[in-house]
Amino acid sequence: MLVLFWRPGCQPCRELRAELTPLEAGVAEMLAVDADEEPDAVRRHGVTTFPTLVFYKRGRELHRLRGGSLPASTRALLAAGS
């Protein structure tokens, strides 16, 4: 599962959402959390930078990417799953 923590007024957040949209079909599950609407979720997950993309497997956090666009290696890995 991928969880994207983002803010509507954040340009890098909007760019990352656009980058992830074509990859959604190949990912088991993806959730976008609007930090302005879900501040408790942001706090519970310790997110302080936007955008933040968190990778989970069976409820366990595997990896966290903060800010900006996806690294090429992550893009390739996600694209391979689609």
How would you characterize this protein structure?
Helix 1 (11-20) links the parallel strand 1 (2-6) and strand 2. The longest helix has 10 residues, at 11-20. This protein is of the alpha+beta class. The model has no long low-confidence stretch (mean pLDDT 84). It has helices at residues 11-20, 39-44, 72-80; strands spanning 2-6, 30-34, 52-57, 60-66. It has three helices and four strands. It starts with a strand and ends with a helix. Helices cover 30% and strands 28% of the residues. A four-stranded mixed sheet has the order 2-1-3-4. The protein has a single domain, classed as 3-Layer(aba) Sandwich (Glutaredoxin).
Query: In CATH, what is the homologous superfamily?
Result: Glutaredoxin
Low-confidence stretches: none
- Mean pLDDT rating: 84
Do you know the CATH topology? Glutaredoxin
The CATH class label is Alpha Beta
Number of strands: 4
Domains (count): 1
Please summarize the sheet with the most strands. Answer: 4 strands, mixed
Category by helix and strand content: alpha+beta
Q: Order of strands across the widest beta sheet? A: 2-1-3-4
* Euclidean distance between termini CA atoms: 14 Å
Radius of gyration (Å): 12 Å
Our count of helices gives 3
Shape: globular
Fraction in helix: 25-40%
- Helices and strands, in N-to-C order? EHEHEEH
Approximate strand percentage: 25-35%
CATH architecture: 3-Layer(aba) Sandwich
Per-chain topology:
Blueprint: E1 2-6, H1 11-20, E2 30-34, H2 39-44, E3 52-57, E4 60-66, H3 72-80
Parallel strand pairs: 1-2
Antiparallel strand pairs: 1-3, 3-4
